[in-house]
Amino acid sequence: MPKITYIDTDDTERTVEAEVGATVMETAVNNDVPGILATCGGSCSCATCHVYVDEEWFERLGPLSLEELDMLDTAHDLEPNSRLSCQILVTEEIDGLVVRTPPRQI
Q: Which domains does the chain carry?
């Protein structure tokens, strides 16, 4: 199983096993990772699953969809490496992914 490391605003790291086919958001919610609210449940309509993808991983995740780009415009504290975790699919290739949660989601 791929592992994903979530780092919160206090620099607390949580590394969890992720199920292939799930999303990074679903994995966070299922493992009680703080800082990812996921209000819309993963339908790309709220931006409360906003994360900062570690720079070494950002390009490896592929391009953002237009829908994700539009929704990111509503996120707080946007950075060049911002993504919506509901739009990142867990695959074996992302084993070791590192994401940080932003200071606020809403």
A: 3-100 (3.10.20.30)
